[in-house]
Every structure is written in C-alpha cells, then in structure tokens.
Design goal:
Elements: H1 2-20, H2 24-27, E1 34-46, H3 55-59, E2 65-76, E3 81-90, H4 99-107, E4 111-115, E5 126-135, E6 137-138, E7 142-156, E8 161-166, E9 172-178, E10 187-204, E11 207-218, E12 222-230, E13 235-244, E14 250-262
Antiparallel strand pairs: 1-2, 1-14, 2-3, 3-5, 4-8, 5-7, 6-7, 7-10, 8-9, 9-12, 10-11, 11-14, 12-13
Amino acid sequence: MKRVYFFLLMLGAFTMLQAQESTFLRERSKDNKLIQLDVDMGANFDLAHRSNGNMLTALTDRGTAYPALSFRVQHFFSQKWGWYASVRLGIPKKYKRDCYEELASASEADYYVSNLLGDKPTPNVNPCMDGGVVYRIENSRWAFYPRLGMGISNVGIQDVYAELKKKGGNELYRIEYNNGDEYGAESMDLFVISAGFTINYKLCRYCYLVLNANYTQSIGKVSYQQYVRNLYDSQDVEQTTYKSSTLARNLNASIGVGIPIYLGKSAKKRIIHR
C-alpha cells in the first residue's frame, strides 16, 4: 500500500506541475544549465518481507522506521534532462530482534549455550549510494524532479556465533551464520534500482525547500548460510541456506533545503552609442 501511495503522489505532482509549467525554461535556454545541492533529513521505512523461519531476514531486521540523512547533487545540462548522484545514510539504533537470544532459547533444553561475541550486536550506519537520470519540470516557484537510477545499498546484519555442549554428553558444536566469510560480516553491499522525486519550493534565487521521496529495491536474491559444525573433527553436520530478494527494499521520505548554482550566462543588453 505504501508503494501505491508513493506512485500516486509522484503522478499527481507530475500532472500538476506539467500543467502549470511556464515559458521560463523555453525562453531562456542559456540560463537552464544548473547544479543543485540538496541536504535533507527524514526516515527510512523498511519494506523487506520477513517470513517466519528465515534467519536472514531476522538477522537484518532493524525495525520498521529509523532516521536517515541524505546528500544529493543534480546537474541539469538541458531544459529537461540532467543527472544526479546521491548518498543516503540510514541510522538505525538497534536490531529489532535479538537473534542470539532466540537461538539460545531454542537450544537450551538440550544444550549448554555459550555466547562467543559477548556484547549484544548494534547496527552500523547503513549508506546507500545511487545515481542516474533526472527529469525537469519547473515554474516560477515550484519544481518537480522525478529520477531513476541504480546504486549500492549497505544492509547491516547481526553477527551471531554460539557454541553448544550437549547436556549429559560430550558433543560440542558451533553454530554460525555467514555468507561464506570465515568470520562472517556485519553488513552486506547489495545492488539496487532506485526511483524517486523531489519537489522544490523556491524561497529566493539562491535557496529553496526540498520534499524528497525515494524507493529502492535490491536486484536479485541474497543468500546466507547457517552452519552447525562439530568442533571435534571440524566437519559441518548441518548447513541451511536462507534467501531473500527484498533486503534493500526501502522507502525514504525527507525534507530539507538546497542551493542552486547557475551555470548559464544571461544575455547582456547591448548599449549603442551614437
């Protein structure tokens, strides 16, 4: 439903501003080359599908919403088209689920459980970098810039290791989750497609307000493994693979400010001396 609202809002803004577009751009093509620098603050909404029993989505669950800070540059080289580059920093405070506690609770009836990490894992700042093309619709006060691009999104993941000793026996196992690294990883870099828009309101020639919305979707599926290893012979006695295609699916909404840098030169009036 959030995705439906996002695209309806984008379509409505496009229609309104296209209808109101003045002749400003068409008449002054020399002034149309422009760079915009934006900074905005808002929230990331995690739209990943998290099914029961999928430890990959459990290990990456940062909660439904968390703060995000964005920096963006847009360069318009014509009346209608330009390119953009953006860096967005997601700042989750904690993981929603404590996967070590869940693992321990499921195993403690038959095993003594030892936590190899000690401290409860906390998520790092998760950057997302993307770039692509942006379209330009403007009038004297308002501007609407839909964009489409690709990039890389960093997704934090809990680092969970534990040792299990059989109660009443000598069996000793180690459980770990990783993507093939010897010591696991605290994050993963995923390729994403990105679609979004900004609505600007011009305060003066050198400053404007920004309303920004952006949607990202990971490309392809991500795999993560669970290993159960016998510590006496270092053999894996069990291996389970978890997959997800929605880990980097996020909706970002934010507000901020921006400054334009005009690259074109206004036509100078000629003075004729007689």
